[in-house]
Here is the input.
Amino acid sequence: MLFNSLEFFLFLPIVFGLYWVIGGKRIKSQNVLIALASYVFYGWWDWRFLSLILFSTLVDYSIGLALGKKEKPKTRKILLWISICVNLGFLGFFKYYNFFIDSLIDSFTFFGSELSINTLNIILPVGISFYTFQTLSYTIDVYNKKLEPTKDFVGFMAFVSFFPQLVAGPIERATNLLPQFSIERKFNYKNAVDGLRQVLWGLFKKIVIADNCAKYANIIFNNHTEYNGSTLLLGAFFFAFQIYGDFSGYSDIAIGVSRLFGFNLKRNFAFPYFSRDIAEFWRRWHISLSTWFRDYLYIPLGGSRGGLKMKIRNTFIIFIVSGFWHGANWTFIIWGALNALYFLPLLLTKKNRINTNLVAEGKFFPTLKELRQMAFTFFITLIAWVFFRADSVAHAFSYLYNMFDTSLFSEIEVLPSTILTLVLFFIATEWLGRNGQYAIENIDFMKKPMRWAFYILLIILMFSFTGEEQQFIYFQF
Amino acid sequence: MRKLLINICLFFLFAIIIGEIVVRVTHVVSDIPQRTIDEHGIQKYIPNQEGYWKGGDHKWLVNKLGWPGVLPESNKNLIMVIGDSFIENFMNPNECHQSAYLKSNMNDYNFMEAGRSGVSFIEAMEITKQMDSLNPIHSLIYLDDDDFYESITQVKPMSDITQLDIEINTIKYGEMKSPGLKKILYTWKLMYYFYNRFQLGNLFQPETLHDNSKVEEPEFTAEVIKLIDYIKQNYVTTNKTLVFHPNSKKSFIEICKSAGFNTILLDSSNDDSWTFDYDSHWTCYGHKRAAEQISNHLLNSNHQGILNNFNIKK
Here is the structure.
């Protein structure tokens, strides 16, 4: 079920109403409702894959309980590895099997011999990368004794399948979300209003910004040889806002919907395109995944504590794995490696943590230096997005080659001024609201009629600029 | 919770009012005229209505007789133009109506349109009967294959369209389908916008399986012959020309010819598109080209004869 679908607009009020009719004191009943609703939400896409989530839930619940009972390090380690192998096994099979087979065949062909293995026609279960990482975080935290294993199966089931963030995150940590299933949820008016406002903003990002940018990004990327350099640059610009509007829009809706049910999810995006360097960008982009990799991969590998070699190795590992997490294609791996290359100079010169505060804090306009830094960071991100969006590595290189020829400074061939105006409106709103959790969080300074008029403006824009309903990009990851 | 629900209700009320204003000002949906059924059982529009077509580029109007379009200045040498939504033609301005193009090609004649979406062949014949009081010298009836099927209860039963029951040879006049609901829907423009935008009408239709393989549709020739026989016995056919849409079934045209009708088969091949990209109706260009072909047919020697039989008053 898509957040921007009619079904969801019927589904949400029904679940919301039932949830609060049950009442915050009957926690178990509420959890049963959440689990059931989540299974309906997921099963709406393809009910056959519900068994996969249920199996993952059963495995990690049982292993969590076993880890709580066992003290012997060796036994605990075996239990942890069973969880890792089961979860990553599923992920590997559904997401990466064909990629590995293809790559194996290609490498044998490269060395002059033939290998005959058939690839499989596998359907990638929606959101598998998200819930796999979420359940893994539970087992690892229980293993590391950061979290007590839960005995409440229904609560755990609701945690794994929690519908607002099940298919595209934010990837929640068990330490943050799981305890919320065992405490009384009280309806809070302010939270609910704030949640609804965040949902509205998320829908605007998805429907108006992402879907409209997608139209032009698709046209330009799919016919890149027919356009000049400046148009290709615009195509990459549109894709940058497509992916940001799409993914951060989904996160906003997920966080907002969760707040309606009395849950607080982690922030996933913090105005990444206002970053002054790539390190800041990665602290602001897909925060739940970056911190997941930091805590469960980068730090266990030694982080940035070791020597130069280790720093370089760990940086490449984390960025390449992050790229690979997004999809089984060399384009994602190169996208990750490119970001590692951007990041390394900052790490090695110890400048990776100089921009930790809010850009132009307390000021209306940024300084020229900040503007230059933001423009540069955005530009190099744009180059990396070309790899992310391209169908193949050859496609990406061809796109960049055509983009950086002399026609980069010629007149743009496709200039959808309405969409560009909308993107500018979006950037301006984000800039003005950058001290909030999301752009329109602190809109309360406006009088109620003005505020409502602004919400209605967003709604009108959504209806006016709704194109073809596009699936959220991150579902495929 | 109460406060939230009250605020949500108030917000929706506020949004509905603003939305209604925006939809009306920007004409994102077309204004839809109200219908009525006259004393002869013919569905037509309530006279003297006007409104905007989607986008607000042009206005449509319903004349004092209850038909869309402008009435001729005189009823001298009157030729009736009868048909369904192609003749109703709300999607084009008045100057792109068949009557306007035909008049510019055949200045000695006056043309009057009687069009309404959903008009079947049998209903078109009923309309010609009612129009006899205006003493037209000729009638042009615009048809496609569906107009034959929709005329016969046994082939395509439809309660809102006038049809012939070929088993008992009786006309069943169309009834208005949920007129109250439609009146609300067309008046409450925001609701109508949502209805169109989300294709809410489809929610209440049984789902059909889409099969891409081409299935030959039955011809229903026997049923069509019965329909034409009934028409032959109950209406005057000699002063009527049936104008067939491009690619209409040749067999139907032959049956009509044998019943005494004059026929014209329009041809849009080897020409620019006659229709809108998003809609099968004709654009101004399509109407112009259709009118040119019809005028040429009517003014050539054979057809001039047809018109002469009806005493052109100069």
